[in-house]
Amino acid sequence: MGTLKKFGISLLATGALFASAPAAMAEDCDTITLGAAISLTGKYATNGVHAKNGYEYAIQKIKDAGGVKVADKCYNFSTIYYDDESKGDRGATLAERLINQDGVQYMLGPYSSGLTKAIAPVTEQYKIPMVEAEGASRSLFNKGYKYLFAVLSTSEQYLASAITLAAEMAEKEGKDPKSVKVAIAVENDPFSLDIRAGVQEDAKKYGMKIVLDEKLPRDLSDMSAILTKVKLLKPDVLIVSGHSKGAATAVRQIGEQNIDVPMIAVTHCEAADVVGNFGKAANGILCSTQWAETLSYEDDLFGTAAEYEAGFKEAFPEYTNKTVPYQVAQASAAVYVFKDAFERAGTLDKEMVRDAISATDMKTFYGDIRFSEAGNNIAKPMVLRQIQDGKYNVVAPSKFASHKLEWPREAE
Question: Do residues 62 and 139 both lie within one domain?
């Protein structure tokens, strides 16, 4: 399947995205309709498309496996998508449309914490269960929502482990971790501000000095002024978070300006395909990830993490020469949670389905999924990958590491 083109306002998902014929048994199933306002255009479009592809892959895998078994009936998932254009107010309007005009009773989440924050009050108002995969801000989980559930780890965990790594490296050199200087450059959105808070908390724990704390420009297209300050201040760690567009800008300009910082940690590396787009300039960068194909997770539907990656690439060949972004995997996991909840509930009653989602306790190809009372996943850790010779290798935490950290990072 070629790269998705721009979509109009509405797109109804069908199994036509896949070449394989579904099992005859699944063809006889009824339909459970899910709804999703997703970023197919605008600044979040790259990851919006990744998320949609992850949803579609899981929907087809479930269909091929015989569908969703609810009591004595079977169902296939079908999803109504609307393009929120990466705008929160539009996302909220589209959520209303899905519920009131399209009659959707179950929602998949949008892309980004900001968009999820805009839509969650709507789904909560109408008591619509929403399983989301792309909104990680911890601020989503202190509102008392009862219908919002997130399969991913919360955002303050994304790059905090880079600070722990920096402390370990300082100690190996016989230095006090207090001597480590930290620079932070993040987008002014809920997700990235949470990452900033997590980094600040860990830096404070070690007594590190934050020498730079900047917001990325609104359009995320130029951080050269910030990098000029980085050159002057000579930090030991540089933290950058700005979704896929911010990651692309950061890696490109770090290479162009020959920024020589021993440790650079960035979010959304895979989604921005920084290796494919910027080659050697990406080497040594640390990338936070919710999931990696090398991890030892597995389930009965998708198989191992590695088998999930192989199957997804077969269904979506445009990813063949890329690392599958974790945004894809966690989107599939969200659909899988719905399947599990419907089957345990044994009914399509949305309150009973909500209760079943709340009681989720699953082992999946993506990792363990168990929700706190607030709705966030409390069973799965974040990991860090380092780009080494163009490959994404897990380097932390140590129990998940497949490779040793290359440190200090050398500027190309």
Answer: yes
261 and 393 part of one domain: yes
Quick check: 78 pLDDT over 70?
yes
Encode pLDDT of 91-144 as tens digits: 999 999 999 999 999 999 999 999 999 999 999 999 999 999 999 999 999 999
Task: List C-alpha distances in Å: 34 to 3, 16, 247, 338, 352.
Answer: 23, 17, 31, 10, 16
Contacts of 28 (CB under 8 A, 6+ apart): 74
- Distance between terminal CA atoms of the chain? 35
Dihedral angle sign, alpha carbons of residues 194, 199, 202, 204: negative
CB neighbourhood size of 346 (10 A): 14
Closest C-alpha among 344, 348, 374 to residue 357:
344
Distance, in Å, from the CA atom of 91 to the CA atom of 67, rounded to the nearest integer, reads 29
- 1 lies in a domain? no
Instruction: Give yes or no: residues 254 and 392 share one domain.
Output: yes
Q: How many domains does the chain have?
A: 2
pLDDT digits (tens, 9 = 90+) for 170-212: 999 999 999 999 999 999 999 999 999 999 999 999 999 999 9
Asked whether residue 320 is domain-assigned, the answer is yes
Which residue, 291, 271, 378, 394, is CA-closest to 333? 291
Question: Domain of 117?
Answer: 10-154+293-370
Residues 47 and 129 in one domain: yes
Say if 3 falls within a structural domain.
Answer: no
CB 299 within 8 A of CB 62: no
Is residue 101 located within the same domain as residue 232? no
